[in-house]
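Here we describe the complex-level prediction in full. Unlike the single-chain runs in Section 2.1, the two entities below were treated as one system.
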Amino acid sequence: MITETNFKGAIVEMLTKAETELPRDVLIALRKAAKSEDGKIAKINYETMLKNLDLAKKSKAPICQDTGTFTFFIKLGRELKLQFDITKATTEAVKTATLNVPLRANVVDPLTRAPSLTNTGKEQPALHVEITEGKELQVDLLVKGAGTENCGRLFMAQPADGPDVVVRVVRSVLEEVRGRPCPPNIVGVGIGGSIETAALMAKRVLLRPLDKPNPDLELASLERKIEEAANRLGTGPMGLGGKTTLLRVLVEKASCHTASLPIAVALQCWPARRAKAKILGGKLKVVEP
Amino acid sequence: MKITKLKTPLSEKDAKNLRVGDVITIDGVIVTARDKAYAKITSGKKLPIDLSGGVIYHCGPLVKRTSKGWKVISAGPTTSARMDSIQADFVKRTKTRALIGKGGTGKEVAEKLAKLDCVYLAFTGGAGALAASQVEGVEDVFWKELGPEAIWVLRVKDFGPLVVAIDTTGNNLYEK
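The structure predicted for the assembly as a whole is:
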C-alpha cells in the first residue's frame, strides 16, 4: 500500500538526490570524456566539473545553481488504487524540496514574469502519467536548467528529405548553440509522431542510461552517426574547444502522418540530473542516483 | 600549469595583460548581474555601487537566509549570450573591467568588449557548488526584489579557475 506520506517523501528524496549527485552512467561517461581530451582548456573544464561533483555530493549542495524545473514521468499500474491525488502530492513535494534542499525559485508567470517562489504553478511541475498493467508504480524525474532547455528545437522536416535529415538537423542545432547548453551534452531526439509527441519523446528518451545501446539497430546506427557528426564540430567542453561535444545521443521514434516528419531535439547539460523511484517491499523507494 | 592570481578592482593594465587561454583566479569582490539587473541599468536606473574596474559575474546564485545573514549555496555562471543585446552598453555605462560567464558572447559583442578594454572570463557552467565554496561572504545585495536576479556583492577567494576567452586585443576562443 503506497501512502501519500511515502509517495511525497520519495519525491522529496528524488529531488534532493537528483540535484546533488549524478547517476553512475553519467559520471562514467564524463570521466571517459575527460580522459580522451589532451588540450589544456578542455582538461581544466573537466577537472572543474569533477571537482564540483565531489563537492556537491559531500556537502549536499546543488551541483548547479540553476536547479531547473521538473518533469515527472510516472508509470501507474491500473490495479494500484492510490487513495490520494498524485499531481497534488508531487506539487507539495516540490514545495518541500524547494525549502529544504534548498532549490532556487525558478518558476515565473510566462507573461508578467511574476515569480511563484515555490517552483510550482500551472503545469509546474510537469507530470506525464502512463497507465500500465498490474500494480506497478515507477517515477522518473528529469531536471532541466534553462541553459539547455532554451537550446531545444522542433522541426517539421519534409518526408522527401529522407532519414539523413535527422543528422543534419541535430548538427545545425549544435552549430547554432555551441557552448551555451554546457557541453558535453546528451541529445534526445524524438522522430515522428506529431509536434507534441516528438517533443515528449525527445525529453523522455533523456531518462535512458547512457551505457545501454538502443535495442533498435536502425536507431542505434542513427545515434552513432549523429554522435560522430557532432563531435567533429570541435565545440568541446563549455564551447572552448575539444574532442567531446556530446556524451551520447538517444533517439526514439513514433509513427507519423504520411505527409509529415516531425523532429524534436532536446539537449541535456553535462550535469545531467535525473532520479528514479520504484516499488520495493511494498513502498516507493528511490533507486537512482 | 600557470595560474595567475588577480585582485579586484582590476586596473586597465591587468585587463590588457591578459591573453586568451590564460588561466586566472580572482580574490576580492565580484558582483552578480543578469537579465533583469542588466535591463534596469541600461534603461538608466542609477546603480547603487560603483563598478569601475569591477568584475561582473553572470550568475543567479542560490542563496539561503540564515541567522548569520545570507549564505551562498550554489553559484555557477549563467549563459552570457542572453545579455548580448545590451552587453556593450552595460560595460560602457558601468566601466566594468571583466565579465565572468559561460558560453561567451556573440562575435560583434566580443569585438565591442575588446574596444572597451573589458575581458571575458569563462567559468565552467554547472560548477555551482564549487563556486559557492569560493565565496567567503555576501557583502551586500541590491534590488533584492529581483530574487536570484538581484545584484549580489560577493567576497571571493581563489575564485576560478577562469579561462580568458575574449581578450582586449580581440582574440576570441569561441571563434576558433
